[in-house]
Amino acid sequence: MCGIVAYIGNKNCKDILINGLKRLEYRGYDSAGIGILVKSPDGNSGSQGLEIKTVKQSGKINDLEKLLKGQKIEGTVGIGHTRWATHGEPNQVNAHPHFDCSKRIAVVHNGIIENYTEIKEELKKKGHTFISDTDTEVLPHLLEEFLKSDADGGMLIAMQRLLKRIKGSGAIVALSSDYPDELIAGRIASPLIAGISKEANFFASDMPAILEHTHNFVVINDYETVRLTRDKIEIYDASGILLQREPFKATWTLESAEKAGYEDFMLKEIFEQPYGIRETMRGRITNGIFNFDEFGLDDDKIKNLKKIQIIACGTSYHSALTGKLVIEKWAKIPVEVDIGSEYRYRSPLIDANSLFIAITQSGETIDTLAAVKEARKKGAKVIAITNVVGSTISRESDSVIYTHAGPEIGVCATKTFTAQIIVMYLIGLYLAKRKKLLSEETLKKFINELEIMPNKVQQILNNADKIKKIADYSYRHTCFLFLGRIYGFPMALEGALKLKEISYIHAEGYAAGEMKHGPIALTDTKTIVVGVIPKDFVYDKMLSNLQEVKARNAKIFALTTEGDSNTSKYADYTFEIPGTFEELYGILEIVPLQLYSYYIAKNLGRNVDQPRNLAKSVTVE
Ligand code: G6P
Q1: DSSP for 308-353?
Q2: Ligand 1 atom having least distance to the Cα of 411
Q3: How far is the CA of 426 from the centre of ligand 1 (A)?
Q4: Does residue 201 register a pLDDT over 80?
Q5: Could you say which of 2, 13, 313, 412 is catalytic?
Q6: Distance from the alpha carbon of residue 357 to the mean position of ligand 1, in angstroms
């Protein structure tokens, strides 16, 4: 997830681009850059005495602004980008825009080019040289190559050919000093809009970037390409046919536009989960094909693996628990899970035949980092799972697997959690595949199911109002017990954590079988028991546990599976999730629990994006 803004008009656009990027920092903030068409100092670069001047910087837009201070860059066509790294560290070289060889084409991009390695190799053979580690850099070079073979087609046709050549996702905006009166864009899967006004036209990945200039927008759809000039927009479909599309008028304020119309970042991020899940699977599961070789262990290492140790804190710890369950079930490797702050001070048994996995959305949690150091000292290979490219953990581990949930602004982890769960499934399936423990047919079934998981999550989100109603009945209760078994247990823990984090109500997550050993003493009319009860092999056991608390006057909110008419006989409120394989239920269970906590907290007037006493990255012990 990155932010794009582009301008073509009659004003100097440097400040317009910078201000636009500032409005998009919630989409990415690890590096930024602009590219503006300026008069060439020697008057002979480009066909029209023009050249593209780029200024890029790592860090926030403020850092870029500092670098720009005092630089006179005058031009009326430009592109800008704020990055959330996916390929290549967030540094100056990897920041966008990226150039072709001739430096006459500059490109900004939001998305992931899955086949960039293959394209890069092909272009290298044709003499192209690359300077960054990004996937994006192949785009200007591809455009250059297409223009070489068809100069008459211009940038538009080159962009149309480019969209056919790349696999993955992308909102792409290109600027060329040979075609100074147009900006050319293309889109696959990543958001892109055009802003239209009398004075100038714009591209942006989101409205806030340009809302101060125009309220007239045109949405660009998948596989469309666009030529934008100072006074015209031309949109072409995938086969190059010119389309007619009228702009619509947006009534959003700047603040609501940043949150895409949602009341809070947390709600927006909960609703972004189908996207985060899809992006995290991108290139790893595509059209039934499973490729997770980035895991990077050779056959011998996998064969000799005696143990996997997973370390994490907070919400990430709950995804680690899911990891344990699926890895042990599918790949038959013992997995130990520990909390960073505990692990670092005990005497863990770990050696070169152990694999150490550290999960941290921020990549900066001090206790997780300390545990990583400890494990490496003992010779273990460390794989980090994080959402932040270039974060400390990515530098201090042997290899990194990125979740691609996009930046999470709300302090509570939501979309990064479901992205981590996806990586846990991928690891479990991958190790089982390499150890030949799952038949091709079974593996295929899981892969196919994962591919449709974003749709199932969407189905739950479409019923958010039902959860809201249950939350409206629940929010005055003062004690919440979240119960689950096996795959539902980590979700019970995470559901309880979400509720206490943002509503400040006391909540506990428990393995349902443990109720009798203490927590059942808590149940009375003030208690709500949230039962995670999918149709799996422990369904009957869960049902008995719910009957036990019912008999003690607690209210029950049960998360059930579609078609389960039995649980509702005992539960006061039920919410149905779509059916799936028992190992995969977690990802569907947590989404309604996030919504439940959210609506309870809102009923209590809490600040869900910045709950009291909590921080997004915990860099102190
Ligand atoms: C903080 C955040 C939590 C997060 C935890 C671990 O407490 O508020 O949402 O789960 O840190 O963070 P990490 O970045 O290591 O996943």
Answers
A1: EEEEE-HHHHHHHHHHHHHIIIII---EEEEEHHHHTTS-----TT
A2: 8
A3: 22
A4: yes
A5: 2
A6: 16
Q: What local confidence, expressed as pLDDT, does residue 256 receive?
A: 77
Contact between residue 11 and residue 189 where contact means Cβ atoms under 8 Å apart = no
596 Cα–ligand 1 center, Å = 20
pLDDT tens track for 282-305: 999 988 999 999 998 888 889 889
- Mutation test of ligand 1: which of 265, 310, 343, 361 has the most ligand atoms closer than 8 Å to its C-beta? 361
Query: Residues with Cβ within 6 A of ligand 1?
Result: 313-316, 360-362, 365, 368, 411-413, 614, 616-618
3-state secondary structure of 224: coil
Using CA positions, which residue lies closest to atom 13 of ligand 1?
360
Look at 252-256, 365-369, 375-379, 471-475 and tell me which has the smallest mean pLDDT.
252-256
Question: Which residue among 318, 423, 616 has the greatest number of ligand 1 atoms within 8 angstroms of its CB, and so is best to mutate?
Answer: 616
C-alpha neighbours within 13 Å on the C-beta side of residue 392 = 15
Q: What global pTM score does this model have?
A: 0.84
- For residue 248, give both structure tokens: 């619509």
CATH architecture classification, 3-245:
4-Layer Sandwich (3.60)
Higher-pLDDT residue of 258 and 204 is 204
Topology agreement, domain 264-451 and domain 458-606: yes
Q: Binning pLDDT at 50, 70 and 90, where does residue 533 land?
A: very high
How far away, in angstroms, is 527 Cα from ligand 1 center?
A: 28
Break the chain into its structural domains and give their ranges.
3-245, 264-451, 458-606
3-state secondary structure string across 586-600: HHHHHHHHHHHHHHH
Which single residue is written with the structure tokens 């109500």? 505
Angle at 55 between CA 35 and CA 105, to 5 degrees: 35
Residue nearest to atom 7 of ligand 1 (CA): 314
Instruction: Point out the ligand 1 atom lying closest to the alpha carbon of residue 412.
Output: 9
pLDDT at 45: 54
Judge whether 616 counts as a catalytic residue.
Answer: yes
Domain 264-451 = CATH 3.40.50.10490: yes
The Cβ of residue 221 has, within 10 Å, a number of other Cβ atoms equal to 13
Q: Coil, strand, or helix at residue 54?
A: strand
How far CA 296 is from CA of 299, 302, 381, in Å, comes to: 10, 10, 11
Position 46 confidence tier, pLDDT thresholds 50, 70, 90: low
- Rounded Cα distance between 67 and 186, Å, is 30
Distance 471 CA to ligand 1 centre (A): 25
| Atom number of ligand 1 nearest to Cα 313 | 6
> How many angstroms does the Cα of residue 571 sit away from the middle of ligand 1?
32
Superfamily of domain covering 458-606: Glucose-6-phosphate isomerase like protein; domain 1 (3.40.50.10490)
**Relative orientation angle of helices 585-603 and 440-461, to the nearest 10 degrees:** 20
Determine the pLDDT at residue 276. 94
